[in-house]
Write a structure and sequence with these properties.
With 393 residues, the chain is of the alpha+beta class. The protein is built from 12 helices and 20 strands. It has helices spanning 14-25, 50-58, 62-68, 107-119, 166-170, 234-237, 240-250, 297-316, 323-351, 355-370, 372-382, 385-388, and strands spanning 7-10, 30-33, 47-48, 70-72, 74-79, 85-89, 102-104, 124-127, 132-137, 142-146, 151-154, 156-159, 175-189, 203-208, 211-217, 222-226, 259-272, 276-277, 280-282, 288-289. It has an 8-stranded mixed sheet. The two termini are 36 Å apart. The structure holds flavin-adenine dinucleotide (FAD).
């Protein structure tokens, strides 16, 4: 077997590593190339939904995630000032999933666990400090070129290289959509809010008089996300004094907050025009981006990886490569109709500022939560179970 007889995965983010692990377990030689010197430790994803946990369980990764994360059996949408809320209890999904809860666990944990497992696979290799600058292909093989000028040949290349994917750009695939106007600021504080708000769930989406924020319990403490109105001076926005003032504004306390990390993000909603050109494919953020409200982006990237790995394994074993078009036909509509649209609805709901409209939304959510059939349908959608049962296009 030549060195080119492998799958090359660009990007050691969580999606690339999960995909590589699936391929290695199917005994397909796989090389992961990552531009960073080590795994990224940025904050971003922390919510894992039930079907993703089931998939990760099949890879032997769920137990480690459950150990490191916080199980969140309920989540809520609330009026911060009055405490009125709609409370969603995922136990109504106990007939639909083995994991009727959200897991709050930072995405870096998934990447680390997947990398550890990958290192035990004899047919897998991971190279850090390897930035891909060019990707080309012909009928027989695909080729990547690194910044150092090295050429890496492979039978298949999968771009799991995130929002600015070099693979997507090399293939000249359109990535249409929009960039949301707001900047989201993530704050990790080891101070919990239990004393101030004993009725908060593990995950809360809250309207304030003139804005909105979310809090997610993780280990230890909480992650708080909010949208500063004036972001013209980001240094000022991210200063300790400003972060403290924001936290005090939602939960006043005599002692200052212990803040571990702060990070700003711009967010987009975009879907690649296709996920495949010849021997090159896209998965995860390289293929689709969405509002983080509801925590769906990484989950859907992991779902891409499972779908694609199954098909690549069959093609590797001799099936017609046209099977890979089914990956695009199955996963791209889910990104458009379920992930992007649902997360955009989640975002719009929380962006609502009109008090009457908010009241009507809350009343409708409370009625949904109180009606077991409606509640189950709502949670099947928001927990990403419905999208996976969508018939293929
Ligand atoms: C504020 C925020 C909160 C979020 N919360 C959630 C959540 O709770 N739940 C959820 O499901 N999703 C969430 N997301 C989305 C989630 O973070 C992403 O969907 C996820 O990180 C995508 O993983 P990935 O592996 O596809 O891409 P990435 O994590 O972006 O990884 C891409 C990797 O490719 C590497 N790379 C890039 N270019 C090259 C190159 N040229 N050569 C070599 N390597 C390269 C990068 O260094 C990186 O390691 C959130 C996003 C944001 C912004």
């Amino acid at each position: 077997m030549s060195a080119a007889d492998r799958v090359a995965v660009v990007g050691a983010g969580p999606v690339g590593l999960v995909l590589a692990l699936l391929l290695a377990r199917a005994r397909i030689p796989v090389l992961v190339v990552e531009q960073g010197e080590a795994l990224p430790t940025d904050l971003r994803a922390s919510t894992f939904h039930p079907p993703t946990l089931e998939m990760l369980d099949g890879l032997g990764l769920a137990a480690g995630m459950l150990e490191l994360g916080e199980r969140t059996p309920t989540w809520q949408i609330r009026m911060h000032e009055t405490g009125e809320k709609a409370l969603f209890d995922l136990s109504v999904l106990s007939g639909d999933t083995r994991y009727p809860f959200r897991l709050q666990c930072e995405q870096a944990n998934l990447a680390r666990l997947a990398l550890e497992a990958l290192r035990r696979e004899p047919c897998a290799e991971v190279r850090f400090s390897t930035r891909i600058v060019r990707a080309t292909q012909d009928d027989d093989r695909a080729e990547l070129e690194t910044e150092a000028g090295e050429r890496i040949a492979a039978r298949w290349v999968v771009g799991c290289d995130g929002a600015r994917s070099i693979v997507r750009r090399a293939l000249d695939i359109a990535f249409d959509g929009t960039t949301y106007p707001e900047t989201i600021v993530l704050v990790v504080t080891t101070t919990d809010f239990r004393e101030s708000f004993p009725d908060w769930s593990g995950v809360n989406y809250a309207w304030t008089r003139d804005g909105n924020f979310a809090t997610l319990r993780q280990r230890p403490g909480r992650r708080v996300s909010y949208y500063p109105q004036d972001v013209s001076d980001m240094d000022a926005v991210l200063s300790g004094a400003n972060i403290e003032a924001f936290l005090q504004s939602i939960a006043p306390r005599p002692a200052p907050y212990a803040v571990d990390r702060v990070a700003p993000y711009r967010v987009h909603q975009r879907v690649a025009a296709t996920y495949r050109v010849g021997r090159m494919l896209l998965a995860g953020d390289a293929a689709h981006l969405n509002s983080p409200t509801g925590g769906m982006g990484l989950n859907s990237g992991v779902h891409d990886a499972f779908n694609l790995a199954g098909k690549l394994a069959r093609v590797w074993a001799g099936a017609d490569a046209a099977l890979l078009d089914a990956y695009v036909a199955e996963r791209r509509p889910v990104a458009i109709e379920h992930v992007v649209q649902q997360s955009d609805r989640n975002r719009s709901r929380m962006k609502e500022r009109d008090p009457e409209r908010r009241r009507a939304i809350l009343a409708d959510l409370q009625a949904t939560a109180a009606d077991p059939a409606r509640c189950r349908a709502f949670l099947l959608r928001s927990s990403m179970i419905e999208g996976l049962s969508r018939p293929a296009a």
